[in-house]
Amino acid sequence: MNMLSQSLHTSFPVLSPNLSSRDIVLSQRSFRSVSDFQKAKKEGRKISMLSVYDAIYSRLAVEAGVNTLLVGDSVAMALYGFESTIHATVEMIAPHVEAVRRTCPGIFLVADLPFGSYRKGLKAAMKAVEALARAGASAVKLEGVAGNEKIVSHIVESGIPVMGHLGLTPQHALALGGYKAQGRTEKGASRILEDAKKLEDLGAFSLVLECVSRRLGSQTSSQLSIPVIGIGAGAEADGQVLVAYDILGLSLGRTPRFVRRYLDGRALVLKAFEEFFQQIDRAEYPSEAESYS
User: Fold this and answer.
1) Which of 22, 29, 171, 249 is the most buried (most CB within 10 A)?
2) Taking residues 112-120, what's their average pLDDT?
3) Residue 48: phi, psi to the nearest 5?
């Protein structure tokens, strides 16, 4: 056991399975370790991943049977009102990792390394990794590979699993010319495939592939031994990930093409709020049954 993982093990003991009546029981679908990702890939089972930021949605996701959870840097947009993910910081993400971990002690939980946190040298990168690991992350995710080779290797060697992220990398949206599909040329597709193989060689246990053609998603999944989790990369990827707020119809602004809404959450929440305010105006709330004698 290396020094970082040993420190985390000794300083932060595993949470008791009998914390409270609110504690959730993981299902057989719940991933608990990196080996579950490899097993799913080997057996041809699709991997489901959901990006959540709090106790309520993380619990519901696990109860519904999601395989694994992600606390993404999209929290900056979803909860803090920023226009992009570059405003996320380790200090912003860590409390949300803690909230999800307290609610779902055993689930495999990935946390994003935010913009700039791993591009300031090895020492700064490991400080960010340690903060997220101590908050409860089972693994960290970072975008791109060029310039990150030594960092990825060092994180893996330190005992913390690494998930890669290729294709459309939101932290690099300005350099990419905006939020648009990647790898559309033969050269671009080849570069993404080469980067994916490089991440695998560096020790990444999985990678997210965003906004690429269905064909490239299929090629990447078939040529790698590690799972490729798609977000706008076609159904042939080894799994899929979306943001909980997006599939519930709660996100504001433009919805990406790859998002499927399973609920018109905005309309439902608006209706509930409106009824509450109207009943207050009419003195219909609280009723006799909702009051104390």
Assistant:
1) 171
2) 95
3) -105, 135
> Is the same domain home to 191 and 278?
no
Task: Read off the pLDDT of each residue in 231-249 and give the average, rounded to a whole number.
Answer: 97
Residue 8's pLDDT is 54
Residue with tokens 């040529």: 223
Percent share of the chain, pLDDT over 90: 81
Which comes out higher in pLDDT, residue 293 or 100? 100
- pLDDT above 60: residue 169: yes
Q: Is the dihedral of CA 119, 111, 93, 98 positive or negative?
A: negative
**Domain range holding 291?**
265-293
Distance in angstroms (rounded) separating the CA atoms of residues 134 and 75: 19
Cis peptide, bond prior to residue 286, ω within 30 of zero = yes
Say whether both 269 and 189 belong to one domain.
no
pLDDT digits (tens, 9 = 90+) for 36-67: 999 999 999 999 999 999 999 999 999 999 99
SS3 at position 254: coil
Same domain, 83 and 151: yes
Residues recognised as catalytic: 210
Are 32 and 116 in the same domain?
Answer: yes
Distances (CA, A) of 22 to 63, 94, 135, 281: 12, 22, 20, 35
CA atoms within 13 A on the CB side of 200: 15
The number of folded domains in the chain is 2
Q: Tokens 């996320």 sit at which residue?
A: 88
pTM of the full structure: 0.89
Tokens of 93: 């993400």
Residues 106-124: b if buried by 16+ CB within 10 A, e if exposed: bbbbbbbbbbebbeeeeee
Same domain, 65 and 150: yes
Q: Report the SS3 class of residue 48.
A: strand
Label the pairing between strands 139-143 and 206-210: unpaired
What are residue 272's phi and psi, to 5 degrees?
A: -65, -45
Q: What's residue 250's pLDDT?
A: 95
